[in-house]
Amino acid sequence: MLTPLLKVKRLNELAATGQLKGKRVFIRADLNVPQDEAGNITEDTRIRASIPAIQMCLDSGAAVMVTSHLGRPSEGAFKPEDSLAPIAHRIAELLNRKVPLISNWVDGGFDLAVGDVVILENCRVNVGEKKNTDELAKKMAALCDVYVNDAFGTAHRAEATTYGIARYAKVACAGPLMAAELDALSRALAEPKRPLVAIVAGSKVSTKLTILKSLAEKVDELIVGGGIANTFIKAMGFEVGSSLFEEELVPAAKKIIDKLSRRGASLPIISDVVCGKKLDANERATTKNIKDISKDDMIFDLGKDSVDEIVKCIHNAKTIIWNGPIGVFEFDQFAKGTETMTRAIADSPAFSLAGGGDTIAAIEKFKVAKDISYISTAGGAFLEFAEGKKLPAIEILERRF
Ligand code: ADP
Ligand code: MG
Fold first, then answer.
1. CA 279 to ligand 1: nearest atom
2. Is 323 left (phi over 0), alpha (psi -120 to 50) or beta?
3. Could you list the active site residues?
4. Ligand 1 atom, smallest distance to 226 CA
5. Residue pLDDT, tens place only, 121-170
6. Is the CB of 377 under 6 A from ligand 1?
7. Average of per-residue pLDDT across 236-264
8. Is residue 276 lining ligand 1, measured as CB closer than 6 Å?
9. pLDDT higher for 354 or 382?
């Protein structure tokens, strides 16, 4: 079955059928990398990930423009720290060729021949980018024959380079990164092999309530952890002492528990937890039964028995969706639960999909990245997709299909 999610034009198909030859291609990439105070790139994964789309266009005889946002500039007020110069430099190194950086590019007028690659300065500096004005979108669309969106991380925002330009460009398609992300997400969410197990953990229910509700409709087992688990523990009638939890969301947690049980899905039982008295790197960890939590206890991790239950679920799963660490994994004495769970996911032959800033940090800490089937670096867009929302940048590509 082909899901509607996949109905977008793809760059590799255009390349394979000669439709890029002699064409001006505009790539919206996600080159928003971390930089130190001097502007040096501290981590270049996103830049390296953008290369296949650029190379594909070059190999197909196109003239290539690439743009991205970087940081949070003010529209119409370019500052030196907003510049994509360090990124253009890194791309030039990776491609081993000259890659000029073009400022004030919206009205065109810059040199670009077949076989060239140029970087168009930070797109969020352009007036109208955030509001997705037609004026800006039309001007950008006029620069190219083919528009490529390869920036899944911004797909939940309708901006001029992610939405408007796709409306007006002659051809609009998804780049290879975007397509890979769409394929992985639809595989896990639209047509999952079952049992489907989701882990929703991390600090707060409030930031993840929609995803919890939406997954409660789909999954066979829902694992909660972290501060989120504390709110669920409270909803089950236990005390959580001084732990991070959200009193006002206890009714919402109860509803989610009810929904799961009505569907015959389950929530693995939390029986023991690891506590401290304050959030501190040197705090002593004590394992307790959840019936014995005192007023000044703070739950920072799940205990061994609870984690064993989670591991059992993971062993049975055919698809695993994971967002959020189940404890304060930054401190080793509270990292055991997250570590054990992370290793179980990595060891599982199931299709595993993980996303979220701290989730990725945990994957890095335990060095299991290569054993996770797909790691989404998309943050907000990943969560919104998992919630079942239509992402604007994908909706427009589908409409242009
Ligand atoms: P992600 O970025 O992967 O979506 P979140 O930002 O929601 O994850 O949550 C990650 C943070 O939650 C981590 O910094 C972790 O220390 C914290 N956390 C996990 N469990 C607890 C807990 N029991 N109490 C307080 N903080 C927790
Ligand atoms: Mg986070």
1. 25
2. beta
3. 46, 204, 357, 380
4. 20
5. 999 999 999 999 999 999 999 999 999 999 999 999 999 999 999 999 99
6. no
7. 97
8. no
9. 354
